[in-house]
């Protein structure tokens, strides 16, 4: 093992963020008068990307910010008919978008936020979508349809007419702040906001639109590691960070934006002019309310974390390609991003440590960087896989237990292996991380070392791990639950 200076520090002032972000949204509501439709991009209460690249940012920070406005706010959840038909799945949660709508509603209501309705977009008479609507209505949820508009978003004349937005259901709202969110990108959040502006204007209600998009951070340089990390995170969407030309023309100031916002802005501006008579915004950047760039307390910490995230995304894409063989473009794009950021995978110290140990022992290995910068390594054995061994090695180190101490006796491991192979017809007799943790738990009542080792698990939060083989789903889930940032070489076990 080796000791290094820790990079696991806080680089983001979360309390400051909660304060100034809610203040900024209040100002925007006041700017428009009666009502503000706030398009909320990204994840509201489980934004782990932001927490990884901005250490100190809490995954539910945006939710906590909204909680400060909960008496003024209501939420509309948007889902596309196309995603319902395709049974589109959230990659991070493994559930379909239609099920995620119910999950989101439940989570919002648990903390006292009002979810007033669900809007189903791109409706074209699909029977499966109609069945989904009936299901929601049986649960007491108000549901509205918005329709596909031919030529959207470029046919402004049609969009801004009774045959365009005018065909959509008018979504009834009661509060000054209407947050429009969705299970994922492409749901139609922006179109819902604009359709509502059209209908509100017809009814004599002064309503405005703003956009809350966490990344790219508009007041950071385009090639800042935090912004580059966002580009890596959205490689599958083919997003590209760009300077906002409209903002520069209007103010002479450089602001970071991305291709989709810049491409759609002329259309938005024309729609605003059609609805209001003039556009309230001179640039895509003007539409945003994001204050996250004002809350970085240690830029070096955030830069280091962002570089780690770029590499993590690269390994994630490589492993996806090895498993599914479908995303070579994504791998190539992130590889280019790595070069642009002047990074190699060796920047990730756990990667270097795991590879060094593999070179010595010639078997699958793993390495973890603890919160104090200590690097702990492990290798596969006849009893344990590398990740299971790693958890034991790290827990022993943190608890001050000698490395030579055997926490789980061999006579306990062997019956588990026999069950896995002979009775459950498994091919891998080695214990996974969950099996090791269960064994430790069983022993902890009578064994002081096992109890102390288990007590160290909260200290894994924020640590980094690299494995020289792709881990099983069980092992990946355990590391995720422990709050560990995991990367793996795109090598299947046994290769």
Task: Tell me what you see in this structure.
- This protein has 495 residues and is α/β, with parallel strands linked by helices.
- It has two domains: 14-214 and 259-294, dip2346 fold like; 348-488, Cytidine Deaminase, domain 2.
- The protein contains 20 helices and twelve strands.
- The strands form three sheets. Strands 4-3-2-5-1-6 form a six-stranded parallel sheet, with helices on both faces. A four-stranded mixed sheet has the order 10-9-11-12, sandwiched between helices.
- β9 and β10 (375-379) form a beta hairpin.
- α18 (433-443) packs across α19 (448-454).
- The protein is elongated and about 75 Å long.
- It starts with 13 loop residues before the first helix and ends in a 7-residue tail after the last strand.
- The model is unreliable at 1-7 (pLDDT under 50).
């Amino acid at each position: 093992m080796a000791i290094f200076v820790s990079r696991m520090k806080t680089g983001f002032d979360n309390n400051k963020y909660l304060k100034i972000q809610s203040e900024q949204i209040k100002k925007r509501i006041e700017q428009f008068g009666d009502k503000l439709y706030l398009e909320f991009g990204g994840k509201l209460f489980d934004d782990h990307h932001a927490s990884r690249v901005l250490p100190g940012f809490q995954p539910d920070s945006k939710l906590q910010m909204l909680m400060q406005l909960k008496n003024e706010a209501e939420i509309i959840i948007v889902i596309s008919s196309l995603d319902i038909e395709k049974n589109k799945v959230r990659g991070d949660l493994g559930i379909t978008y239609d099920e995620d709508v119910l999950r989101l509603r439940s989570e919002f209501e648990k903390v006292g936020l009002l979810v007033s309705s669900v809007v189903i977009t791109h409706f074209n008479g699909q029977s499966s979508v109609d069945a989904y609507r009936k299901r929601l209505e049986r649960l007491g949820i108000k549901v509205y349809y918005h329709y596909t508009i031919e030529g959207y978003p470029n046919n402004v004349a049609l969009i801004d007419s009774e045959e365009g937005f005018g065909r959509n259901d008018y979504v009834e709202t009661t509060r000054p702040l209407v947050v429009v969110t969705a299970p994922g990108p492409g749901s139609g959040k922006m179109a819902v906001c604009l359709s509502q502006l059209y209908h509100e204007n017809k009814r004599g209600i002064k309503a405005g639109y703003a956009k809350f998009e966490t990344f790219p951070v508009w007041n950071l340089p385009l090639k800042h590691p935090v912004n580059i990390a966002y580009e890596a995170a959205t490689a599958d969407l083919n997003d590209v960070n760009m300077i906002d030309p409209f903002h520069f023309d209007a103010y002479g100031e450089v602001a970071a934006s991305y291709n989709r916002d810049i491409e759609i802005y002329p259309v938005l501006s024309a729609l605003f002019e059609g609805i209001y008579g003039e556009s309230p915004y001179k640039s895509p950047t003007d539409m945003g309310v994001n204050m996250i760039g004002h809350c970085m307390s240690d830029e070096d910490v955030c830069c280091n974390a962002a570089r780690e995230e770029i590499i993590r995304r690269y390994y994630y894409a490589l492993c996806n390609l090895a498993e599914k063989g479908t995303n070579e473009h994504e791998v190539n794009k992130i590889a280019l991003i790595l070069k642009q950021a002047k990074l190699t995978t060796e920047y990730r110290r756990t990667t270097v440590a795991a590879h060094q140990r593999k070179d010595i022992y010639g078997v699958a290995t793993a390495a973890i960087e603890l919160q104090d910068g200590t690097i702990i390594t492990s290798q596969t054995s006849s009893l344990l896989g590398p990740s299971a061994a790693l958890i034991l090695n790290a827990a022993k180190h943190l608890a001050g237990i000698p490395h030579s101490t055997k926490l789980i006796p061999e006579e306990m491991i062997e019956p588990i292996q026999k069950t896995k192979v002979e009775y459950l017809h498994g091919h891998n007799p080695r214990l996974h991380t969950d099996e090791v943790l269960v064994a430790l738990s069983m022993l902890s009542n009578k064994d002081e070392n096992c109890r102390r080792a288990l007590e160290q698990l909260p200290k894994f939060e924020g640590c980094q791990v690299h494995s020289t083989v792709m881990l099983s789903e069980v092992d990946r889930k355990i590391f995720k639950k422990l709050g560990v940032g995991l990367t793996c070489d795109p090598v299947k076990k046994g290769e």
